[in-house]
Amino acid sequence: MTLLINGKPCELEARTLADVVAHFNLNERIIVIEHNLDIISRELYGETPVADGDKIEIVHFVGGG
Amino acid sequence: MTDLLTIGSYTFTSRLLLGTGKFSDLDIQQQAVDASETEVLTFAVRRLNLDNPDNPNFLERLDLRKYTLLPNTAGAQTAEEAVRIARLAKASGLCDMIKVEVIGDMRTLLPDPIGTLKATEMLVKEGFTVLTYTSDDPLLARRLVEAGAAAVMPAASPIGSGLGLLNPHYLTFILEECAGKVPVIVDAGIGSPADAAEAMELGADAVLLNTAVAGAQNPILMAEAMKLGVLAGRKGYLAGRIAKKRYANASSPMEMLIE
Question: What is the ipTM of this complex?
Answer without folding.
Answer: 0.95
